[in-house]
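Researcher: Before we compare anything, I want clean individual predictions. No alignment, no superposition, just each chain on its own. First chain goes here; please echo the sequence and then give the structure tokens.
Model: Echoing the first chain and its structure:
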Amino acid sequence: MGNAQNPDGARFAEVQMNIRCKQAGLSLARMFGLIAMARRSCGALPRILAYHGAESALDPLLNYDGFHVPADAFRKQMEHLARYYRVVPLGDIVNAAVKGSSVPPLSVALTFDDGYRNNVEVVAPILESFGFPATFFVTTGFIDGTSRPWWDLLRAIVVRTGVSSLAWGGTAYSLVSQADRVCAVIAIEAQCRGMKAADREAALNALASTSGVDVCEVGPPIMTWIDVRALLKRGFDVGPHTVTHISLGVEGPEAVARELAESAVQLSSQTGVTPRLCSYPYGGAVDVPAGVESQLGALGFAGAVTSTEGLVLPGCDVFRLPRLNVTGKHVGAVFESLVSGFTAWVK
């Protein structure tokens, strides 16, 4: 086993400084009208925003990356959309892409992955105050309690444990400082994403057993089926996000077929609605296997969203739609730059 890693504090501080410099630079871009120029230039290209939740009471270490957007920041993001964009149902963008037609200029669709209860308690009321439609993609195994978000378990273990280091993959990660804990979470999460679900679960259970952390309840609460049906009654759309949040590109074809079919059946049986759109877990290029389009088509789906960054270009594959991934770090000019298309310009 390797020595305990103690990430260089100067390096961590450098990352934070780079973030602040980016925020300052984008504020200048906004001041000089560059973001407004990008918004107009990319006006014909639909945007699909990807969120996970909005929450204000989370431990800042557990939510170090802004995975759940603070409620006040989320409202400000919606205020910006209301001022400059037209928020439309995701289905409108998919239908236009299928037909080769267009949606109104500056169209934006809102999506929320995983199925956190704060989507019902925090997100939905804010959306309703603006009259915004949205699509909520739920992981059906999370909803019925047969599985849970592994990343919430990992974060709880690393952040709450009282030990000074934890072993993972032959390396002992130092947990002396808060920066150490964040760096350990980042490193272990990156490895977990590429693992088969069964291997990851076994490894995390082993990690939990050495951490001394009570892992019975970790992370923000998940919706119930009552919550899912309530979202539909309130006029929102709901789609599946697989059963157990596997990477479809990592697991075998039998697991892929089962997860896609069972999540659609579970959602339909619980809500009476036949889903037409779905979201791939993780959603990177390696997480969306070849041939998945025909599988989804056979199940009656009309389209699917990835987590590949980008605006929706003409002629795009409706089963591999890109999105713009939004976190709590996207505040002010950073959010405005992302949605406008300016961020893509300067990459």
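Researcher: Okay. Second chain, same rules.
Model: Second chain and its structure:
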Amino acid sequence: MYSKKIIGNSGEDKAADFLSLNGYEIIERNWRTRRGEIDIIAKKEDILVFAEVKTLPSGGLETLSHELNLRKQKRIIETAKFFLAKYRQYNKDKIRFDVLVVDMPGF
């Protein structure tokens, strides 16, 4: 049995690889503030992506809405605002929030 942390890290690695293979530059991983964390911050051309990664070892999507409730969404948005305030060089970029679901049945 793998720990939740190991499964999550594996999923984040796969998500980062997917983004990189699709032309995104990974700016940050697991960027944290006191209020929250963003799993991956990536950039492609003039688009800055704040990505939440959800690894589902059971292969089911039914828990996704529970995992990404309104409170979690607000925390991600607030953390993204803090990132943009700190790194003003990205302020002219278009912003996108993504959820990357990594299906890892049997992991």
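Researcher: What stands out in the second chain?
Model: The beta strands are 25-32, 37-44, 47-56, 94-103. Additionally, The longest strand covers residues 47-56.
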